[in-house]
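Hello,

Our lab assistant flagged a job as stuck in the queue for most of the afternoon. It eventually completed. Since we weren't sure the result was trustworthy after the delay, we are filing this so someone can double-check. Below is the sequence as submitted and the structure that was eventually returned. Let us know if re-running is recommended.
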Amino acid sequence: MEIVEVRLRDEYIKLGQALKAAHVADSGVDAKLMILDGKVLVNGVKEMQRGKKLRDGDEVVCGDVRIQIKGQ
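-- returned structure --
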């Protein structure tokens, strides 16, 4: 499994933005479709909200990519 770190610039990053920042999704539309298809887990739970706020320590899994959210 590939591990990608996404650094926060602010207090949080939205799920769709994190997928794009980690190069898992090419666009917001791709991110939205992945999320709506149930392919994205946040902290081990299937997440259906593209705007879900991710904070330091959160972990996202999509396919064979694990995204770790790190603080500033």
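-- support follow-up --
The delay was a queue issue, not a problem with the job. The result is valid. Residues 28-36 form the longest helix (9 residues). The chain has a mean pLDDT of 96.
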